[in-house]
Amino acid sequence: MTTIVVLGSTNMDLVAYVAHPPKRGETVTGRAFRTVPGGKGANQAVAAARAGGDVAVIGAVGSDPFGERLRHALEASGVDTDLLRTADGPSGTAHVVVDDDGGNAIVVVPGANGTVTALSPGDETLIAAADLLLLQLELPLSAVLDGAAAAHRHGVRTVLTPAPVQPLPPELLAVTDLLVPNEHEAAQLTGVADPLGAAQALLRQVPEVVITLGAAGCLHASRDCAPTVVPAPLVRAVDTTGAGDTFTGALAVALGEGRPVGEALRWASCAAALCVQREGASTSMPYRPEIDASFAPTHAPEDDTP
Ligand code: RIB
């Protein structure tokens, strides 16, 4: 079983479903409101655990009622929360507007996530025993750097989702094995709008890149093999929140199991396609049998080379 540690955020997503998002100065009426456990770190942890990984999370929830609910949601999906601290004060929140096409706009207020500025005793031991460390940018950069450096010291593969996007310091890039931006983040990081060009630019900084392209699938590029686009299953999206996190969590499990990269990418795409057909972030993430069932008809075993 793939052992995965996620160093990342937990947020309560406060989600309003609307026909179209309000413009500045406009008030619109939504059709529904939900509170859904989310946060890029917690989402990746839940996705990986449901996909069959042995997963632990490092981060913080607040001392408010959201904090307890966030912790329980992780545990209910089988994520180990022993190193998830409870910080005095509010949990992280994400204010999400989902439109009728399934697209979203999100404002994140870090809350307890902002208290995780460095690794705590025990964190490095946990990371050292993992196959992969998953990181995003919703914790303070100092903690992300600490975690990635610790993983690198112990030969643990690091997977970084550069979201919310910000310039990446060279010392973080130096300890990143796989970078997984979406196409907008890749363009912002490189100044190159075309995903293939952006991937080539990123390969000068990290050895392997997967750029997620939404309904168009993903682009894989590494220093060892030619770039390839892996198409996504054709589905009708109702809510894309957490789709990228589902993809990354499932991808980490498949890579940790030693599956060929092309197969791992297609399997992770099936997981993300299942996620977008349901509302919410962590609540919409599929369990392994469902991913396998949707993957089987699309997969020809001889077709493993990306
Ligand atoms: O990637 C989706 C997540 O981003 C949401 O769950 C929200 O919490 C924000 O962190």
Description:
With 306 residues, this protein is an alpha/beta fold. β6 (92-98) and β7 form a beta hairpin. It has ten helices and 13 strands. The strands form two sheets. Strands 5-4-1-8-9-10-11-12-13 form a nine-stranded mixed β-sheet, sandwiched between helices. The two termini are 24 Å apart. The chain is globular and about 50 Å long. The protein has a single domain (3-21, 31-299), classed as UDP-N-acetylmuramoyl-L-alanine:D-glutamate ligase, CATH 3.40.1190. The chain is 33% helix and 22% strand. Residues 9, 11, 13, 38-40, 43, 94, 106, 108, 138, 241-242, 244-245, 281 line the site of alpha-D-ribofuranose. Alpha-D-ribofuranose is lined by residues 9, 11, 13, 38-40, 43, 94, 106, 108, 138, 241-242, 244-245, 281.
Q: What are the defining features of this structure?
A:
globular, 33% helix, 306 residues, 4-stranded mixed sheet, binds alpha-D-ribofuranose, UDP-N-acetylmuramoyl-L-alanine:D-glutamate ligase, alpha/beta, 9-stranded mixed sheet
Structural class by SSE content? alpha/beta
Please count the helical segments: 10
Report the sheet-strand fraction.
Answer: 15-25%
Overall number of structural domains: 1
What is the strand and helix layout of this fold?
Blueprint: E1 3-7, E2 11-17, E3 32-38, H1 40-50, E4 54-62, H2 65-76, E5 84-87, E6 92-98, E7 104-109, H3 123-128, E8 132-135, H4 141-153, E9 157-160, H5 170-173, E10 178-179, H6 183-190, H7 195-202, E11 208-212, E12 218-222, E13 228-230, H8 243-256, H9 261-276, H10 288-295
Parallel strand pairs: 1-4, 1-8, 2-6, 4-5, 8-9, 9-10, 10-11
Antiparallel strand pairs: 2-3, 6-7, 11-12, 12-13
